[in-house]
Amino acid sequence: MNRPIGYWIKQLDASLETQLDSTLARLHVTRRQWHVLNALKAGPATPAKVRNILRPFNSGDGPAAQERDMAVLVRKRLVLLLDGGLTLTEAGSALHAEATALVEDTRRELTAGI
Question: Pairing with 85, which of 9, 31, 54, 113 sits 20 to 30 Å away (CA)?
Fold first, then answer.
């Protein structure tokens, strides 16, 4: 139990990420894919703009992983690629809303009492 505060912060962060991954898995979407949906909620964007928005969430996976996530969302018909831009479909908007509600519920549960 006598560990530095940095250790406990990393443990907490890992627990939070695991819980969010589990929450989003119920909707068959990864956290990174949910980040793409979030980026597109504000409106259409080019893949380059989405990559730039998501740069802080990269986790060392790089742009190739982001490209795969965008491609998966297009294949699932949650995102439409039209004239070089990405936009949410109706199904993508609905999934985003459902995922956001679940994530907010999970965050409330995880932070209760803090």
Answer: 31
